[in-house]
Amino acid sequence: MKQSGNILFSGVGGQGILLASELTAYAQLEAGFDVKKSEVHGMAQRGGSVEAHLRYGERIYSPLIEPGTADILVAFEILEAARYLPYLHKDSAVVVNTQKILPPAVAMGKAAYPEDILDELTSRGINVVALDAFAVAREVGELRTANVAMVGAMSNFLSINKQVFLDVIDTRVKEAFRDVNKKAFEAGRKLVYS
Amino acid sequence: MAFDSNDNKLWLSGNEAIALGAWEAGVQVASGYPGTPSTEIMGNLVRYEGVYGEWAPNEKVGLEVAIGASFAGVRALATMKHVGLNVAADPLFTAAYTGVRGGLVVLNADDPQMHSSQNEQDNRNYAFAAKLPMFEPSDPAEAKEMLVQAFNLSEQLDTPVLYRITTRIAHVKGVVNKGERIEVSPGTIEKMPAKFVMLPGNARMRRAEVEKRMTAARELAETLPENRVEDGDRKRGFITSGTPYNYVKEAFPEAAVLKLGMVWPLPEKMIREFAASVDELFIVEELDPFLETHIKAMGIDCHGKDLIPNQGELNSFIVRKSIDPDSVGDLFAPLELPMRPPNMCAGCPHRGIFYGLSRMKDVFVSGDIGCYTLGFLPPLSAMDSCVCMGASVTIAHGMAKALGKEGEGKLVAVLGDSTFMHSGITGLLNTVYNESYATVIILDNRTTAMTGHQNNPASGKNIKGEPANAIDLEQLCKAVGVKRVVVVNPHDIDACRKVLKEEIESTEPSVIISRAPCVLLPEEVKRKKPVYYTNLDNCTGCTACIRLGCPAISWHPITKEEAVERGYKEKQKGYAEITEVQCNGCGQCACLCKFDAITKREAN
Predict the structure, then answer these.
(1) Which CATH number fits domain B528-601: 3.40.50.620, 2.102.10.10, 3.30.70.20, 3.40.50.720?
(2) Top-level class of domain B9-221
(3) Which ipTM score applies to this complex?
(4) Strand order in the sheet with B364-366
């Protein structure tokens, strides 16, 4: 089992990044790691770029991932995957939701949304797994589980038993949403290798 | 470290840990004003039994409330962000003279990198200037433990204690050990005029006490467990504190470290001994060379800001690179991508006012601190200054006095309801008393939105969301002496433009209250709202709606062929479309569309 690692979550305010990073943190804690996680609040619901840094290991001091050391990037939007390239190394895995949310300059017609931007990552040898998390969420019947589907897909790159994640959902998610979130997790997890 | 959610280990943010620490330390009264990154401390603290907590209208009020509670013999906490301490500096400096009865801790959250602030002042300087002890924890677990120590020291030394955290404590989560609350007793009245009445005769006596106390604190610092040496390789030694300690431990895990938990006053003997024991001494701290300056004043040779940046926040990468530039490898270069700055939400009531102001190019808009500062960004670009809380009103007045007749019809101040309560009201008093004409717009969205929806004196609810007295903004402005007070619905674009024109042109003080609730308030999120959709056939590509900058409306460029195919005029360059799932039904865009291309669909 890998003894330490850095997971970076990125996306746009309101996409459920904080819950996704919380579930992952709890899973790491249950697996016996020390964990630190850093978030930036304030603008989180105002549509700006949002990131959360999660670090786990035997003893973690710094809550911030160094550039060039993110082992996994979980990006909830395509541009927000590309934006974090300097945090990646050649063996990083990127799990990216294929959703496009237009930044203001693009929405106003002042700039173009870059085409094929994920090629910039794959061309550098980075393992990119792109999935439509909304399609997964729609299939399980609750659009708001797209973030948990992303956690499911990401979990393939961790050596934690999937039951640990399911148990975390059982204890940390409101009862009414547990089953649908577990389904989203399983569906997301299967998607990477299907 | 095993994590068992059933035992006493908790997964908490620094702010949650501080709330827990305050409860364990026996705090009975707490007061604060919301400010990122400090806000969640108060919100969490009021959930504990036996603690009275409140949102004060500003930080000066909050600190004075805490001083009052301390004078009544109970432990008290005041919370604020770094710039809030500027507002509270007046009571702070004199509370240093009076000392305390119940322990008093002033929690101050600095924001290196200005994630959510207008400056990145280093408030360790206040400890030096006000002659107060200051603690600085390194992570959430320590933030809880050290707070209990800060309260003990406050009572032991008869002094308020400053407690400095930064964004990377407040909004970092880590494992925290839960403890027990100490036993508390109710407050009592004890008259101690020589200590509490700071007229010159008494103050001169207390001034001498301050020096005695700081001497005692300096001695105590030498043996305080929060100041400790972590042994290691002595070729390089590091003196550090707060979050930078973590970066040193990651960047130079083998090195000897003197970690300071109390950053003022400094343990001079301990520092001298440590400095003498290492070949080369490095001081690693964020922002100002605070430790470095005082350590150099001891005549000790060291590296500090000659290597480490004095701007922005640090991380382990920056610390390593600053000291060993050759040790870091190549990184992937960033890609050129469109930026994604924050934006006012779809349906935000502020947008209606800023749209109106964006059409008045000769008007200088004196802005303020809140979500509405985003009115600065394109396409609205309707803010011309923003300095600090409440300054919109006074800066507009100052400009009016400088410009005289030239400025008539060209000056307006814009601020939110919470900011008006914080420190806009005193400026408005001045505008009336000293007779000027700048119009004040109060964007009353019923909440303190930017920091995450805290109630304020105009909300009609207290910190727990329970009903409370609501200050009536219209009556307040009238009582101050403003004769022209107009209330407008900001979603009604035409009414807004008319009112803006009339009031800004007026040559007497006037107030426009723009009233509509924030769309993110829980009751607004739950409310069934209509949505608007685009009749694409009717869109002429005029971009009138695009100029609102609403995130629910996007522009789709088209070619000549596509235009013809869609039945548009050949020269039409594109069309605008509403993303219905994002629409909050404010209807501002429908007010602007002249071609019947935007239609309302009632809530079902």
Answers:
(1) 3.30.70.20
(2) alpha beta
(3) 0.96
(4) B364-366, B411-416, B439-444, B510-515, B484-488
Assess if residue A185 is contained within a domain.
no
> β-pairing, B411-416 with B364-366?
parallel
Cβ atoms within 10 Å of B175's Cβ, excluding its own: 20
Given a cut of 70, the residues of chain A with pLDDT beneath it are 1-2, 41-45, 193-194
State residue B2's pLDDT score: 43
| Cα B580 to Cα B118: distance, rounded to the nearest angstrom | 35
pLDDT tens digits along B260-295: 999 999 999 999 999 999 999 999 999 999 999 999
Residues of A in contact with B553 (CB under 8 A): 107
Beta strands B104-110; B75-81: pairing state: parallel
| Inter-chain touch B334–A38, beta carbons under 8 Å | no
Gap from B5 CA to chain A (nearest CA, Å): 9
Q: What is each CA distance from A168 to A1, A152, A162, A172, in whole angstroms? A: 19, 12, 10, 6
Instruction: Find which of B250, B316, B332, B380 to mutate to test the A interface (most A CBs within 10 Å of its CB).
Output: B332
pLDDT digits (tens, 9 = 90+) for A129-150: 999 999 999 999 999 999 999 9
CB pairs under 8 A between A and B: 163
Per-residue pLDDT at B118 exceeds 60: yes
Helix axes A175-193, A146-155, angle to 10 degrees: 50
